[in-house]
Amino acid sequence: MKKIKTIAGVCLTLVMTSSMIFSGCGSQSANSDSKEKKVDYPKKAMEFIAPAGAGGGWDLTIRTTAKVLGDTKLVSVPMPITNKTGGGGAIALSYLQQKKGSDSIVTVYSPPLILINLNGSTEYGYKNTTPIARLITDYGAFVVAKDSKYKTINDVMESLKKDPKSVKIGGNSSAGSMDHIQFLLMAKAAGVKNIKEIPYISFQDNSGSAQVLGGHVDVFSTGLGEVRTLIESSQLRALASTAAKRVGTGVIKDVPTCKEMGIDAVFENWRGMFGAPDMPDYALKYWEETFKKMSETEDWKKVCETNGWDMVYQNSEDFKKFLDGCNEQYKEILQEIGMLK
């Protein structure tokens, strides 16, 4: 599998017209208005959106972000979290289209933002948003109930090689999206044939952990940070992660990678913040700069280490170019497994 690559940015030039120079006071007024907007924004509560239910990766990321922003006093207005579930993120994406030009919405997304468009789940994609900043890279994790017969990720793959329908995989993202794709990529790299036949069950209410605990699926494909507590309490066992090397601390650092287990593949789950389409420039600039400051705080560094997240800040322009690259890469991935629409 090809690894996601970052690409770099562009700058914006402001041009003054001769009429503004002639009037004198017109130039001062324009500068004054710009400064006033910068000082006065944000003046009211923001709407922070998690595009899925409570307990998942998007929910964890945006709640953690809001807490750090508040604790560090980088933002003083309220930042209540709204969970807009459904469609693997498509419901929240449709909601953003109704809020075109809004300066009061910030939402979090990751690879499903691109995948649900490429697999035909929605007509909308990352180009129907305002990318603000990329913040982290998370990694996939494959976990089982503590009494599962599968002791390693290779046990799972060997069973699938004999019968691709023998292991039920569950995930909180929709079919053809991230939790599904990250497992299929590892299975393909492990030499499993007919990977399209592997049963995948989607739990978009973020009940995947409960489903694997209850024996309704054999393996839960998720993110490392999302199951940390259940691993610490020994209710779940982590078989492997999709990182290139071990990450995080404590129980997260104890999780072997698929590469360690002889499966030569890596999957990176980037996460970033987005605004509504046509988010005003003053709002984009404010949040871009604020997320940059947040990414440099000790509070943020600590939560990233705890959750096994790699800190990877990118500004809006760099993030857009990164997304363009991801879009092309994911097309190749979906084409390989027969899910490109």
Automatic annotation (TrEMBL):
UniProtKB keywords: Receptor, Signal
Give the similarity note: Belongs to the UPF0065 (bug) family.
Recorded hits in Pfam families, A to Z, give:
TctC (PF03401)
Against InterPro entries, the record matches this protein to: BUG, Bug_dom1
Q: Which residues form a coiled coil?
A: none
Indicate what this protein is called per its UniProt record.
Answer: Tripartite tricarboxylate transporter family receptor
Q: What CDD domains does the annotation carry?
A: PBP2_Bug_TTT (cd07012)
Q: Does the keyword 4Fe-4S apply?
A: no
Q: Which organism is it from?
A: Clostridium liquoris
**Where does the UniProt annotation place the signal sequence?**
1-23
| Top-level taxon in the UniProt lineage | Bacteria
